[in-house]
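Duplicate of #3305? Posting structure anyway:
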C-alpha cells in the first residue's frame, strides 16, 4: 500500500507540508508516504507549469500508474486534482482534508465563488496567480494559526505563484465518484469555510471533524495519523 499526498494551492514543497505526518506514520505503522510535485506550482518545469490543472492531474495519474494500491490524501486544491485525475484502479481510498469533491465541469474558481471571505488572489500578468496582501503574520493567522512559530515561518517561505489554469480550468472527470472516501472537516479553519467543507464532506463516504485549522497534518499530525491508521487496518 502506498500513501500519496496532494498539496493545496499557491504553495510549493508538498513533502515539507506533509513531513510531520509522514514521519509519525512511518514510526507507528512502517508505511512510507510521499508528496506529489504539482507542475502548476512550478515544482517540475516551466513548460509543465503552464498546463495548470491538467498537468497536475496527469502527474497524479503517473504516480498511480507506478503502484499496485494507494491511499491518496488531497488537501484543499488537491481534491480538485484528484477529481480531474479520474478513477484509477490503484486507488483504494481517498482522504480529503478541508478539500473539494467537484462536479464535472466545475473549476476551482467556481468552487470558491460562493465563499463569503475568499482568499485574496492577484493576477501576476504572466499566466500565474499569487496570494495577495499577506505577510508572514497575516498568512500565519489565516492558514496556520494553530501551528508553532517555526512552521508558520517555514510555511510562509513556501508560498508561490501558480498557473491560472489550475483555478480556471473546468474539471472533465470526477475521480471521487464510486471510491471509498473519508473527509476531514477542519473545525477551526480560517481559509475554507465550514459551510463549504461540509457541503463537500457530504459527498464522501464518511466524515470526521477535527478541532484544527487548515493544515492539521502540521498542527496535529497525531490526529491525521489516527485517521490513516484506521484506513490501513481496513485496507
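Output from current build:
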Amino acid at each position: 500500500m502506498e500513501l500519496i499526498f496532494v498539496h493545496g494551492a499557491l504553495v510549493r514543497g508538498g513533502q515539507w507540508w506533509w513531513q510531520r505526518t509522514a514521519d509519525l506514520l512511518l514510526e507507528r505503522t512502517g508505511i512510507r508516504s510521499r508528496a506529489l510535485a504539482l507542475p502548476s506550482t512550478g515544482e517540475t518545469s516551466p513548460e509543465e507549469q503552464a498546463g495548470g490543472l491538467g498537468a497536475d492531474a496527469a502527474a497524479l495519474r503517473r504516480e498511480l500508474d507506478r503502484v499496485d494500491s494507494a491511499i491518496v490524501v488531497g488537501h484543499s486544491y488537491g481534491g480538485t486534482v484528484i477529481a480531474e485525475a479520474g478513477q484509477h484502479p490503484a486507488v483504494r481510498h481517498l482522504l480529503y482534508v478541508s478539500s473539494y469533491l467537484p462536479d464535472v465541469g466545475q473549476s476551482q474558481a467556481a468552487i470558491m465563488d460562493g465563499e463569503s471571505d475568499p482568499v485574496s488572489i492577484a493576477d501576476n500578468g504572466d499566466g500565474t496567480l499569487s496570494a495577495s496582501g499577506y505577510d508572514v503574520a497575516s498568512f500565519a493567522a489565516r492558514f496556520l494559526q494553530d501551528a508553532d512559530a517555526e512552521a508558520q515561518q517555514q510555511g510562509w517561505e513556501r508560498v508561490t505563484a501558480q498557473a491560472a489554469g489550475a483555478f480556471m480550468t473546468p474539471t472533465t472527470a470526477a475521480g471521487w465518484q464510486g471510491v471509498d472516501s473519508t473527509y476531514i472537516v477542519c473545525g477551526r479553519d480560517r481559509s475554507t469555510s465550514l459551510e463549504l467543507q461540509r457541503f463537500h464532506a457530504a459527498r464522501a463516504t464518511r466524515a470526521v471533524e477535527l478541532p484544527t485549522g487548515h493544515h492539521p497534518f502540521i498542527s496535529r499530525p497525531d490526529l491525521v495519523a489516527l485517521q490513516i491508521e484506521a484506513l490501513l487496518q481496513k485496507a
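Confirmed duplicate; merging threads. The two ends are 8 Å apart (CA to CA). Residues 14-29 form the longest helix (16 residues).
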